[in-house]
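Possible regression after last week's pipeline update?

I re-ran a chain I had predicted before the update to compare outputs. Posting the input and the new output here so someone can diff against the archived version. Not blocking, just want to make sure nothing changed silently.
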Amino acid sequence: EPDVIIVSGLKDVAVTEGDDVTFRCQVSHENARDVEWKLQDVALQNNEMNEISVEKGKIHTLTLRKVTEQDIGTVTFRVGPHTSTA
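New output (post-update):
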């Protein structure tokens, strides 16, 4: 099975407190496994505050809902050994 690589990485985003923010990362193959999102080195799970999804099989998205000052920091997307940060 070929290595899944990041085709289009994350972009830095400025957002107002209380708004939602979405990060997107495109990978080379559909159905990528071993995928992880982190905020400030803390692994994120899909819940009411974090929406993690995959669009068209290759575009992985993370939406942080109603961000606060505590959400300031580095967002990391990892697939296998490859990472992208914003």
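Follow-up from reviewer: compared with the archived run. DSSP finds no helices and eight strands in the chain. Marking as no regression found.
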